[in-house]
Amino acid sequence: MDVILGTQWGDEGKGKVVDYVASTYDVVVRVQGGHNAGHTIHIGNKKHVLHILPSGVVSENTVNIIGNGTVVSVPSFISEMALLHNDGINTQGRLFVSSRAHLVMSYHSVLDNMNEFLKGDAKIGTTGKGIGPAYADKIAREGIRVDDLLNIEVLEHKLKRRVQAVNQQVESFLRNNDTSQMDNPPKPIDYSEVLNEALGYGEVLSPYIADTEYMVNESVSQGESILVEGAQGALLDIDFGTYPFVTSSSCMIGGVFSGSGVSPFHLTNVIGITKAYTTRVGEGPHPTEIKDAELSAYLTEVGNEYGATTGRRRRVGWLDIVALKYTYMINGITHIALTKIDVLNDLDTVKICVEYKLKDGTIVSKLPSHKDQLEGAEPIYKEFPGWKTDITNATSFDDFPQELKNYLNFISSELGVPYFMLSIGADRSQSILMEELR
Ligand code: GDP
Ligand code: IMO
Ligand code: MG
Fold this sequence. Notes:
Blueprint lengths: L1 E5 L7 H9 L4 E4 L8 E5 L2 E5 L12 E4 L4 E2 L1 H13 L8 E4 L3 E2 L2 H14 L11 H9 L12 H25 L14 H15 L3 E2 L1 H10 L4 E4 L23 H6 L11 E6 L2 E3 L12 H10 L12 E3 L1 E2 H11 L3 E5 L9 E9 L5 E2 L6 H5 L2 E8 L16 H14 L3 E5 L7 E3 L5
Parallel strand pairs: 1-10, 1-11, 2-5, 2-10, 5-7, 6-8, 7-9, 11-15, 14-16, 15-19
Antiparallel strand pairs: 3-4, 12-13, 16-17, 16-18, 19-20
Helix pairs in contact: 3-4, 5-6
Bound molecules: guanosine-5'-diphosphate, 6-O-phosphoryl inosine monophosphate and magnesium ion.
Magnesium ion binds next to loops.
């Protein structure tokens, strides 16, 4: 089993890299997150954006699994499937959803938006998809699981309790807040509508439901290869990310095992996807964020840095080696896939943050745990002369100008692991393989 993980704040290019290698694996698995993810794949003039489906679905020889650690939005599942079918991609017999995965219900996004409103200036800037409330229900043992959809009595019982509790929250919210400024003020939930919603989900999902932990382990015993597609990124991880400005799942290596049911003993390579600069969507600390409006706008446009799920502008910054050393360490990353190198092609100078100066003047090379420390951290940069060359058609590392080789060598030597691939454009073909993993 090989694993692909985001090492920054998401949107590193996981979809592209998973697609690039998917056809060399038998099974591709999503293990956490939900339709807050947006994974983009470009093949020729065709673009696919996947939210809950694994990026391996585009490669027709792979089996794809939505694992037990995910939270599944059935409307998102339906619309992504419809788009794939329009593109002539057949998923029959090769897409499965874990019986143990939890469902994102329509009331979860209502709760998500209420929570954000109540936080005011301290809001997280979530995707609004209901991911936090769906995971909160899971941990509080109030969640609706995929296997509940197969039993109407269980569904009725669980939903009745849940709708009652949600309505208490909605009513208290409406009593205590002026919602005139709210885009989409919440309304009390109708139990029978929610029940019908769930029954509809059951009809759609039932052909795909499986005890996927058995499937993946049988694949492993038969010598088949598994690729795990991480969602979000290590700095959004619930434990190791920039809490509380994080998502609600484990997007680091630990989540791979609890989210799939595969033992760590089957692990081979952990590929860290790193963008050649840094972006983050939503609120929270971002020490290397570029303050110069012109340069920031330039990178946003050249890198097309708008969220694949919400369309929000991503906050761009320089590469942050302090944060990366941390995420490479906690994930045991064995290989780097560096993406979007081409976005930096025309810059005179490219910077990498190598240390932080904290508010009290101390210089550190370790990531501070508290957001307040990180918010006040001033990056200390090493500057590199730009390569000022269009490298989007390069076919090997040897084609690169020396300035780019220096930049790349510095990153890999700081992170202490070799490159697996270099991505020099959004298209599947714009990829340079540095080391065969399989
Ligand atoms: P993910 O969430 O990690 O899968 O990443 P997203 O799909 O949200 O965002 C990455 C964006 O960068 C997408 O629009 C990709 O098509 C694009 N992309 C990926 N790799 C490259 C690359 O090497 N160069 C350029 N210019 N774009 C890339
Ligand atoms: P992919 O898989 C970038 C961010 C949100 C917000 C925080 C919490 O495409 O890399 P949530 O809706 O999860 O409760 O929001 O996490 N976020 C992402 N940012 N890429 C993603 O996924 C993200 N998924 C969540 O913007 O800051
Ligand atoms: Mg994304």
